[in-house]
């Protein structure tokens, strides 16, 4: 009996360090992802491993593991000769990716209206009110996190695992752009209004209406992103003119 207990303890004990390492890995990935989404690390920025390790207080192994995850998500590019840098989407990529995403969001909304539970609807409404409170306080990160949670929950309520995986994979590439699309007050006001319409459509179980709102919501974000990029290019070109 004693030997059995001892063997069980030997099997359990080694699992503890692995769990801690996994938590560290997830923390580093989440932290770097947030820095990219919130434009602390802007597109094209070269990532200095030594500086990041010092800033985060970690060794290079967990950092490099995190960079591989973010590269798989399309958030950073890793070159054998140049190292890692934050990915920068071309105008065509932005246009096409938002176009596809608008279709995925529309499908999610239509299916969610058929399948959402009262509990899920209540959770989305609570997130909506919390999101509006963040907007009133001019808290863009807080607003965005709740905004994204609403879109994720609508997608989950669609009850389609293939749709969900496709949506999650594609949305990772757009998160930073979706965040920056609310920098202009008028765009932010418009986005908040769209979310009011989303909640109303969900409550009415009006799939077509919600699909239309979500599709246009994403296309408006695409236009806002491309417009902001064009203005930035004009500013950069102005001194040379």
UniProtKB/TrEMBL annotation:
UniProt cross-references to Pfam families, sorted A to Z: FCD, GntR
Origin: domain of life: Bacteria
Keyword presence, Manganese: no
An example Gene Ontology molecular-function term: DNA-binding transcription factor activity
Name of the protein described by the UniProt record: Bacterial regulatory s, gntR family protein
SUPFAM superfamilies: GntR ligand-binding domain-like, Winged helix' DNA-binding domain
Lyase is among the record's keywords: no
Listed InterPro entries: GntR_C, TF_FadR/GntR_C, Tscrpt_reg_HTH_GntR, WH-like_DNA-bd_sf, WH_DNA-bd_sf
Domain (HTH gntR-type) ranges: 22-89
Family matches, as Gene3D superfamilies: GntR ligand-binding domain-like (1.20.120.530), Winged helix-like DNA-binding domain superfamily/Winged helix DNA-binding domain (1.10.10.10)
UniProt keyword annotations, A-Z: DNA-binding, Transcription, Transcription regulation
Organism: Collimonas arenae
